[in-house]
Design a protein that fits this description.
Helices cover 48% and strands 20% of the residues. The chain has a five-stranded parallel β-sheet with strand order 2-1-3-4-5, with helices on both faces. By secondary structure, it is of the alpha/beta class. It has a single domain, classed as Response regulator (Rossmann fold, 3-Layer(aba) Sandwich).
Length: 126
């Protein structure tokens, strides 16, 4: 199975994703922001990073750009609900341009996440 970093400032989202991904055999590291995510990347190379877009300190777009520039082999799924920001979907579209393999709009189901993770990781084996 895969090594996955889940990066989101919402502890409930991190826990839900971690529980879902570990239940199907993946190893998961959790990060509260882009800085923590990049710290993990300096020590290990995950197969996949799931990252929120809107986070304090280092947001998802900055994190995606840095991962894509430094470790282009790492797959990325960007996710966002946008909160109160009407431009949130523009940021998800931009995330694809900056290197995200897929985008995921919140709210999402566990089934949607697991299916998308399988699709993105399947591209690694193909």
């Amino acid at each position: 199975m895969a090594l996955i970093i889940v990066t989101d400032d919402d502890a409930m989202i991190r826990t839900m994703l971690s529980d879902a991904l570990t239940s199907v055999g993946h190893t998961v590291f959790l990060a509260e922001n882009g800085y923590q995510c990049l710290g993990y990347l300096k020590r290990s190379r995950p197969d996949l990073v799931l990252t929120d877009i809107f986070m304090p300190d280092k947001d998802g777009i900055e994190t995606i750009c840095e991962i894509h520039d430094r470790w282009p082999e790492i797959k990325i799924i960007a996710m966002s609900g946008g909160g109160s920001r009407p431009e949130a979907m523009d940021y998800l579209t931009a995330a694809e341009g900056f290197g995200a393999a897929r985008i995921l709009r919140k709210p999402f189901s566990v089934k949607q996440v697991l299916q998308m993770v399988d699709e993105v990781l399947g591209a690694l084996v193909s």
